[in-house]
């Protein structure tokens, strides 16, 4: 749980799990105020489920279903009433905690100064500076002045608003600032920690420590940007604005959407409950990667299963990497002969780019791993150590197969974030709808996408962002300046497949599986396992990520600029962009 204390009697947090409720009682909490509507996100516990367990634990419970970005006066009154009815400490939660802290702020305005409220929220990791006028009006109204609370309004338009503080959002901000220092950029990101997710494979392989893969968000946020520590409720591209969960509006001249991708643990029955015990693990979770290494070290015999769900997923090679590093350890320790290794993939091939398959198959055979194609993990029974797969045969017939395990490494199904589904800038599935080459939105000319949350058909890797960020930066500035210097993205992605400790198959490819090697073949032959590629993966890539990509240094990543395929501008003036279709 990410509990953030606001006052001695009130704390706020993002969504809690059912398992957290008994823990809250042990931490001394006496009540829960849930300010999130049911059904807002897949896998979200219902209000009834929370209420039932709260009652069992002796906790008071109130549900106030506050719509994201649309806090009403009734919501504020209901929150004040709920707090008054409970003896603290009380925890209030929503998706990120933003609605909870905003409700507290609105109630506290009658007794606390606006500066004190904003400072308190800031210390808890929430940016309520956009509520200053509203809080002032509430304080004046409470003092007897006939001043109504100010409605949320957008201030002066930022040059660029970036939604998302992951690899895509921060790399885009850094690339923009490299080209134009002083550009007015706002980054909307509620989290206070940034993760180098490609490193989690090496944590699970005993090479990295977990702490090597995280940094404080404040330390990686590009200097000169305005960091808005909030979550987005919805996009209003026709108005050049983004609505925050607090209801505040942020306006822009150009928007870069980098929402990322969602890990859908709930799509595998029993998986969320099983993780972290009984041999069930995943390198796709920061807290779980060390457990992978613990399992690998302790397993001396039995069956080890590694799974891969249907595409799309982040880094299509990561499920294999976990297997190869585990097998390498077992081989070195002499345990591999007593371990039955299985790789179950929902797809029909080991790797999507055929040029790299021979090298990978060589390691599959070396480790004696059994490949199981067209097998999708649908359930995990942790206590009984049983995995259930749906197996599709050549005729399309689906049957169910159960496999016992002593260890199972699971790559979860993945998809667009829930708040993107039905969004004005998303396609039908919920991905940011962009032109695959320019990364410009297909309907709104001053909107761009970057990273895992886009519908461009590239591999979803951090390496893809390294080539996307300069393209987006160039094309955003072209829109702002009204020029035709269009940059093209050719689908570059990279997957350093760690086939053993000390060797990597460095897969680099673009659209259509075209090989796009960074280095000459005499230095690194990507279709073969290489010790130099391992050095790049272990020693150089973390530095390339934190010290180059996130700081706007585009080593070997400069964009191709053309002039015969200009971006669509169709802007009335610098701040008024109409809908346009990318050609």
Automatic annotation (TrEMBL):
InterPro entries: BLH_phosphatase-like (IPR005939), FAD/NAD-bd_sf (IPR036188), FAD/NAD-binding_dom (IPR023753), Prot-tyrosine_phosphatase-like (IPR029021), Sulphide_quinone_reductase (IPR015904). GO terms for molecular function: transferase activity. Keywords: Transferase. It comes from the Bacteria. Coiled coil: none annotated. This is TIGR01244 family sulfur transferase. Residues 2-109 form the Beta-lactamase hydrolase-like protein phosphatase-like domain. CDD domains: PTP-bact. Gene3D superfamilies: FAD/NAD(P)-binding domain, Protein tyrosine phosphatase superfamily. Residues 158-277 form the FAD/NAD(P)-binding domain. It holds the Pfam family BLH_phosphatase.
